[in-house]
Specification:
Layout lengths: L1 H13 L5 H18 L4 E14 L11 E16 L2 E16 L5 E16 L4 E11 L21 E11 L5 E14 L3 H5 L11 E15 L8 E12 L8 E13 L2 E11 L5 E2 L1 E2 L2 E2 L21 E2 L3 E13 L1
Antiparallel strand pairs: 1-2, 1-16, 2-3, 3-4, 4-5, 5-6, 6-7, 7-8, 8-9, 9-10, 10-11, 11-16, 12-15, 13-14
Helix pairs in contact: 1-2
């Protein structure tokens, strides 16, 4: 809008000596347009990323396998701002598959995440705020290629977080939401995963609720070092259950660095980190499952006489580097 105003003003000055009355009329019309634009309350848009990699080997002395991977990402946002009120909404969808050698296609990315945060200004940089977050996935997930029993699926798990607190927003790039009153709901709607007591939900039950404290920090820099072709964004959330081992804080964090190499092509590097003390993850030695063993090397057995698999909480990491098509709207 500023550029438009400057252009109009320049044109008016250049013809002022010939049409002062006409110039005044244009100035009034421009001011009127500016007053209309100032009432704009919604900012909407999104981005689409399609990434693909392919490796083909023939008589390659170093070894290796042919591979193909595909990934699609859709991000949408709708932000409202008027007076003292601010409402930020976003929806992120991602799905990726990889095929190595003669093995079947295997999922390597799958995400559904909806965020909504409403705030009402309390002071210059602080807002009274409420937050809603939902996370799940589209399809079955497996530990490794060839497995037939999924370890996750749609709404198993499904995480819902509802929080009330304060939001600190000193500028458009940074925000920190702090909530002393947060409800976290974990759903495991799959019958087999529910029976196994997956994702911290008691065996045989499908929903677990937790009450605790929550902090979410977000940072978005669209021009790293002033470069319009380099962007960085990151966020991290922390949840502590007041009622059960509050020292075991659940952590979810992600960061992405994006470099624009052509009009519609980008290179991106992303890192995701998750830690949830209630999630028991199977341990593997290469592709072989690990079992609990005694000092003499013999295996511990369960009530059915079967070896006990090694499972427990562990930091989950995912790193993705991709080159692909990117479009913003």
């Amino acid at each position: 809008m500023k550029k438009v105003t400057i252009v109009v003003a320049t044109m008016m000055l250049s013809v002022a000596s010939f049409a002062q009355i006409d110039g005044a009329e244009k100035a009034l019309k421009t001011a009127a347009k500016g007053s209309v634009d100032s009432t704009k309350t919604w900012d909407t848009g999104g981005n689409v990323n399609l990434n693909a990699t392919q490796v083909a080997l023939s008589n390659w002395a170093g070894g290796g396998q042919n591979s193909v991977s595909l990934q699609g990402i859709l991000g949408l946002y709708a932000n409202y701002s008027k007076g003292k009120a601010a409402w930020d909404n976003s929806l992120d969808l991602a799905y990726g598959m990889i095929k190595t050698g003669t093995a079947d296609w295997f999922k390597n990315d799958d995400r559904i995440e909806l965020n909504s945060k409403y705030g009402y200004r309390a002071s210059k940089h602080w807002y009274y705020a409420g937050l809603f977050n939902f996370r799940s996935q589209f399809t079955d997930g497996f530990s490794k290629v060839g497995d037939v029993s999924p370890i996750s699926t749609l709404m198993a798990p499904g995480y819902t977080t509802i929080a009330l607190g304060m939001d600190y927003k000193p500028n458009k790039k940074f925000s920190m939401f702090v909530s002393p009153a947060t409800l976290k709901i974990t759903a495991v709607l799959d019958e087999e995963l529910s029976a196994a007591g997956s994702f911290g939900v008691p065996a045989g039950e499908k929903v677990r609720t937790e009450f605790g404290g929550y902090v979410k920090v977000a940072f978005n820099e669209p021009k790293v070092f002033g470069n319009e072709n380099l962007a960085f964004k990151a966020n991290a959330s922390f949840f502590s259950n007041y009622q059960n081992e509050p020292q075991n804080v659940d952590i979810t964090a992600e960061a992405m660095l994006t470099a624009k190499v052509a009009k519609y092509f980008t290179v991106s590097l992303s890192l995701n980190v998750i830690y949830d003390h209630d999630i028991q993850i199977q341990r593997y030695d290469g592709e072989n499952p690990m079992y609990y063993t005694r000092p003499d090397g013999s295996q511990y057995l369960n009530a059915d006489g079967m070896p006990i698999l090694q499972k427990g909480p562990v930091t989950q990491l995912k790193e993705v580097m991709a080159l692909g098509f990117a479009y913003k709207f």
